[in-house]
Amino acid sequence: MTEWKIDNSSALGARIRERRRRVGLSQASLAGVARVTPRVLGEIENGKASAQLDGVLRILAALGLDLYLRSR
């Protein structure tokens, strides 16, 4: 299991983009599977801070990624 510390929207977007490319999906195909628009996916991958959490969670699920919260 690979684990990353995500401390800002840019880091999250970079990991989503990396995973999408690793599994061989285009932005358009991932957006379709995750039920978000390609524009929303692009904004998330580019680190837009005001991305909607629901869309982020659907994208993570479509990529087979889980989101965990852990106390420091």
List the helices and strands and how they pair.
Layout lengths: L8 H14 L4 H8 L3 H8 L7 H10 L10
Helix pairs in contact: 2-3, 2-4
Overview of the molecule:
- This protein is mainly alpha-helical and 72 residues long.
- The model has no long low-confidence stretch (mean pLDDT 93).
- The longest helix is centred in the first third of the chain and has 14 residues.
- It has four helices and no strands.
Brief synopsis:
By secondary structure, this protein is an all-alpha fold.
Q: What coarse outline follows from CA principal-axis ratios?
A: globular
Q: Give the ordered list of helices and strands.
A: HHHH
Largest sheet: none
Mean pLDDT: 93
Give the termini distance in whole angstroms.
20 Å
What's the total helix number? 4
Q: Low-confidence runs (pLDDT<50, min 5 residues)?
A: none
Relevant terms:
72 residues, mainly alpha
